[in-house]
Design brief:
mainly alpha, 10 helices, 65% helix, binds nickel (II) ion
Length: 218
């Protein structure tokens, strides 16, 4: 990255921090910051263009479909921001393409990334949904949605329709089976796979202990 480029990344990071500070839905600035740092680490290991990787990571939830009231307005605002800070139209195009395809939009719309930079950013975002912090985020987000941590009357290991999945009415623990425990198999890069495997094992153990404690077996 050139000096000018790292200056742009620093400026955009400050703006994203200001926008997402005080968000309580689990999609807060610290999520963006973790994804940013992880994306940089993976991008370095994979030899990706770090300018594109870092900006796309910082901005990946700017116009998130789950939270945004007007997605096209938010996307336009983001493009203008990049333009004002000196990104070229080509770079903005690359960044927007990554962001459009990064988030998990339900079971039927498996998003794919065509560039190495996109694969890296998607991996960084998915890694944040696997592991110790992910466990905390599931229950924080569940609380935000009014979802119980666990409900024994709701079966855990079932195949959901996309509609059922998007309704999101199942329990926090069920969300591990619906989504988190599948993420490891959707990782793109070798560097991220190593991290995902370890975090995945930790989550499996967590779920096992949760259910054992629920039944007073531990
Ligand atoms: Ni995200």
């Amino acid at each position: 990255m050139t000096r000018k480029q790292s200056q742009i990344v620093t400026e955009i990071a400050g703006i994203v921090r200001d926008k997402f500070t005080n968000d309580t839905s689990g999609h807060d600035w610290y999520h963006m910051e973790r994804v940013w740092k992880m994306a940089r680490q993976l991008g370095e290991a994979e030899g990706a263009d770090l300018f594109i990787v870092e900006l796309a990571a910082l901005l990946h939830d700017w116009a998130d479909w789950k939270f945004s009231a007007d997605q096209s307005k938010d996307t336009e605002e983001m493009k203008q921001l990049l333009r004002n800070h000196g990104a070229t139209e080509d770079q903005i195009g690359n960044i927007c393409e990554i962001i459009e395809n990064v988030s998990f939009k339900g079971l039927e719309k498996r998003s794919t990334q065509s560039t190495l930079e996109g694969k890296v950013v998607q991996d960084a975002d998915r890694l944040d949904a696997i592991g110790a912090i992910a466990i905390a985020r599931v229950f924080a987000y569940g609380g935000h949605k009014g979802r119980p941590i666990y409900d024994p009357s709701i079966p855990l290991n079932v195949t959901l329709t996309n509609e059922q999945y998007l309704k999101n009415e199942r329990s926090g623990l069920a969300h591990f089976f619906d989504k988190l425990l599948h993420l490891k198999d959707q990782i793109n890069t070798e560097s991220a796979k190593k991290i995902a495997e370890e975090r995945h094992r930790y989550m499996e153990e967590y779920v096992e202990r949760f259910l054992a404690e629920w039944d007073g077996k531990r």
